[in-house]
Structure formats: structure tokens, C-alpha cells
Amino acid sequence: MAAEHGHAIVPVYLGGFWGSVFSYSGGRFFWKIPRRVPYRCRSPSAGRDGQERRAAGPPGDRRAGGAGQQPQRADVPAAGPPVPPRLPPQLLPLEGGRHDRRHLSGGRLLAGGLVLRKLLCRNVLEENEPRVGLLLPPSVGAVLVNAALALDRRVAVNLNYTLSSSVLNDCIRQCGIRRVITSRRVLERFPLKLEAETVFLEDFQPLVRPADKLRAC
């Protein structure tokens, strides 16, 4: 009906579903054990808008090479090996591995990020505060703060502590930053004058409640 009314037909190919409980592998739907849990499927591949309508010919055309063959063409980009889904760049450290000298695993990083996210929302940040400045050296603490802000759907603006106060304040104004999370040791080493409220990372440790740890587990 879409082709008869002049609308574009966009074929979409969904790859990697064979073997899942929604496929007919094994001669049955649903009533079978999946090969793996969770079942990873390939990203969908779609044809270009309008191209398939021109290839299909006039309404009612059923010749070979028409719109019926377009889904097979759309599966060509997805013919390679399945690409595992990736986290957003801010959360890539949560995929696993170890970080820094403290051997912080991905699971511990996720738990620490959730706890710190709760502390930031409860004690510091407001709802209408999409961007938060960070003035921290490369460390476990900096990774935790970045993860906590990403989990709370905020933008972590990592500032360069080797810049001058005037340049940093210009960045703060352009990004609309109201608070900067930093460390006392950083400001002792770099006596910067920031035009924003400074929040010290060391002050959060006494604020952790047992319930915060339980929720993050």
C-alpha cells in the first residue's frame, strides 16, 4: 500500500536473531533454551530512503530486482561478525579491566560511581545543573567522578589545572559551570582563583551511609 500511494519503502535488515528464542531455529518458536544470555544481535541495517521505491518500479511491479530484493541488499553491511554493543565513551572504563595502582575493577568502579552519584545529588548538585567542572589529575578519583556524572546524565567538563586562572574562568563562563569538583592538594599545588563554587572530593568520604553502599551493590 505504501508503494501504491507514492511513499518510500525503507527496508530494514535485523541480523543475528537466528538462535534466539524469537527465531525458528530448532523447528520451534519460544519454547527452547537460548544459546546464550543475554542474546547479542547485530545492529540493524537499513537501505537509503527513497532508493528502494525507485528500484521497485511502478505500483504492482513484482519483477525480480524490485523492492522484494532490497532487504537482501540491506543485509550486506551486516554480513560481517557481530559487533558487541559499546557503552558511551564516559562509561567505557566500566566494561572491565583494572585502573590505577589500587586495581579498581569495572565492578568496583560501577559501585563507587553509583555511591558518588548519590552523594553528589544529595549534597551538592541541583537538577538544573547539566554541566559540572572537574579539576583533578589523572587518578582513580577523577575516573570515579566522571563515571558518577555520566551515570547521572550530566556532562563532566574536565579542566586543565596547568592553565592560568583567566583561561580556566573563561572556560567556566562559556560552559555555564556553577561548581567545580577538585581536591585540596590540587589547589595547594596550583593556587588558582576560580569563578565558581569549589567542591572538594575529600569531603565526601565521611558522608557515605551504609544504605548508599547497599543500593550500589
Number of helical stretches of at least 4 residues = 7
State Rg: 26 Å
In helices, the fraction of residues equals 25-40%
User: In sequence order, what are the helices and strands, one letter per element?
Assistant: EEHHEEHEHEHEHEH
Throw out a few tags for this protein:
217 residues; alpha/beta; Rossmann fold; 2 domains; four-stranded parallel sheet; two-stranded antiparallel ribbon; 7 helices; elongated
Compact overview of the structure:
The protein has 217 residues and is an alpha/beta fold. The chain has 7 helices and 8 strands; from the N terminus they run ββααββαβαβαβαβα.
Write the layout of secondary structure elements.
Elements (H helix, E strand, L loop, with lengths): L11 E2 L31 E2 L4 H6 L13 H5 L23 E2 L4 E2 H18 L7 E5 L4 H12 L3 E4 L6 H11 L3 E4 L1 H6 L7 E4 L9 H7 L1
Parallel strand pairs: 5-6, 5-7, 7-8
Antiparallel strand pairs: 1-2, 3-4
Helix pairs in contact: 3-4, 3-7
